[in-house]
Fold these 2 entries.
Entry 1:
Amino acid sequence: MITIITPQGKQIEIVLASELCDPVDMGEHVRAYCHLHGSDHQRSLSITRMTGWGHCFNAACQATVLVAEWNRPAAQRLLHQYYQGLTSAAIPSYQPPHLPSSHRPFVVQPLLLPLPKAIPAWQQEELHILQALDEQMRWALAHSQRAQLYLRGRGIPLQTALDAGVGYLPSALLNRPEMRTKREVVRRWVDRMLFPLNSPFGRGYIGRSLWHWQPGMNETIHKALLERPGSPRRWIKTNPAGWFGVELEQLPDTIMLVEGAFDRLTLLAAGLPASQIVALVGTALQVEWLPSQVNTVVLALDGDDGGKEASSRLADQLVQAGLRVRVCPSGQNTLGKDWNELWQHLGQQSLAPVFEVLSESRSA
Ligand SMILES: [Zn+2]
């Protein structure tokens, strides 16, 4: 067991499941004798299994506990914050004098991330080929009129896309003689715009098909075309996939989550810092992926029912992990279901809610 005090002054006992005294499973809750105040005639300690958080109902004790194994992200975050606080302010003499002040003498063992499932050989090969083509695909975007017209149609300046590492795979690139043995493996990526993804397991890609897109064709019509039987899938991903954003370690203390790759490009085009905006692109939110400096997450998901449902689910998950959460009002209406559509119709003013919630998060 370890007792920590949060920056807000709250005392939390982080315990291991094995420390619980004679626990009894009551469904959603586990009841145990409280080893904190030493009761052995009433199971006054009640812990919610799903969240790991618990409370002692003994009036004289009232302890707040967190069972580390049942909520690793929260335990990890609290321990990390606590030791960081100790070394930076409360006990400066703990700093060995020869180390720079940013160095943390306490090393908190990172909890192990669950290992990804074994990746089939063809997917590994696919990823390797795409990675090797990365520079050429970015060059292709910078030189493809077709891809640039598509971006323009969505209101995204070319430079914004290039700065974010976006590329394009034209058939001409695959038809080069040196691609002869690799062509078939990556054929499904042809005529796609590729967005680099980050995860703890390395770099990946998500690709948006431009199949049969013509200059001037609007997004709704193109989407309907891609949904017809026999059409290529609108989006495909490598394995591992990840989030479209900066490398995880470079995330600042406050980040904003959006759903789609074009939503992120939209916010970057509007002038928001690239490091702050992360697009989930259909990859589940893994709280464990967030480095410990991230303490506030702003959710700016789509305004449709799916987006609202996801938003409240993610908010719960993040709060349980000890993060501060703000939800950005979608501002979305009949003119658009996501930030990119709104941006195309209304321009900068459509993003007012995003700027507002971010500046509030900073001043809070
Ligand atoms: Zn107690």
Entry 2:
Amino acid sequence: MAFDLDRYRERAERFGEELSREYYRHLAGHKRELEIERIYDSYADLFARDSVMALRDRAATAGDGDRGRRLAYLLHFGFDGLIGLETRAEAAELAGLEASLEVDAGDGALPYRSVVIAQANEADAERRAALEEARNLVLEERLNPIYAAALERGHEICRQFGWPSYAAAYSELRGIDLERLREQTSRFLGDTGEVYSTVVDAQLERARLPGLGELRRSDLPRFFRAPELDELFPAEGLIESFEETLADLGIDLAGQSNVHLDTESRPTKSPRAFCSTPRVPGEIYLVIAPTGGRDDYGALFHEGGHTEHYAHTEADLPFEFRQLGDNSVTESFAFLLEHLTAEPEWLRERLGIDDPAPAVEHSRAFRLVMLRRYSAKLAYELDLHGPSADLGAMRGRYAELLGDAVRVPWPPAGWLADVDDGFYAACYLRAWALETHWRAALEERFGHRWFASAEAGDWLRDLWRRGQRLNADELLAEALGEELDFSWLARSV
Ligand SMILES: [Zn+2]
């Protein structure tokens, strides 16, 4: 049967709608089960090799205009789905084990997935380390063999499609020169090498944790959790501070009929804020179970950034430009709003904090750790997924690259689990850089208090309505005439 592109587009959009709604219902606690198998089954034709090959043939000759963009985004979607479908047995087994396995540090069992939260809430450094060791043992013995099988399967599929490696496949599918990004982020690591220790050590000292050199990886969740900042970020003020911030930008959250703010508490609701987009811009959920704390504020504003970006996307753009494309773009707007919760002016005005310095400095240190960790992750993933990857050496390579960047001895156990599908780490890295361009432009045009300016809101809405038709580089060139520059990012920290 001949390949019908219009029908493919239509079915791809409906698949995304059903999948996204199912995730929303599960994660928001409306239903216990996550029934995605059935959705994949009824749309399996989208991810059949023939369909993906047909998309690839068409994309190859479609040129650089919107026709080419739409086909490139569809091909990326189809290929992700194909790998997902062909490794779904491993994915299901991993999900089942991660939800059921227990970890015992010698003082009673706790669920595998709750270890990081337990470490964040544990004041005793020795118990945090014991939890880490017990979890890593389970990870190595029970989960890594399954992760390895899925990894090799993914690599094999890329070779069957004629790509020399998984890295080459995703460089092409994402339209991102990943090797160039590795150079940019390794320069970022060099540029921030000195400031990193100064900034992080000062915050570790304030949190009464050991400095770099003695700090262990198991201490990081405790450091990020920052319980001493809790009183500055109360649960009660969370939603209100978000609503008021949007109101200042000229956005009436309660009046947005396409945005469903879900704040109700339900027993199985995800503790972490998320945004779900069954239809863009028509049906968007912003879900939160407010608990307060710095991290909760950051998460709501991050997800709120996605929400507003999607909610303002023009309805008459083709599906590919509303729902697919370069996620560096939507992540940049998520980081932009998230960053407000680390702005001194915003903290003073919105949360009434007299001395915002401790919160600002903690966020700066947290951001530096994340940026350096992701820079190292990208370098590692390029090695792991490269044409000449020696899998036997990758466990050590992971510990070496991550440990050097974060300056904490890094347990090698995560060498397979701490890997994002399809180089999503590249989106985060580009988004962090893009966000510094947006922020500089907003400050230049509307001042340091841009977040309280309706004109800044208009300016942002003009970017948001474009959806993800353009990738991060193209959008930045079109909007500001600039090129993505990681040295701005280094200067911003
Ligand atoms: Zn995000």
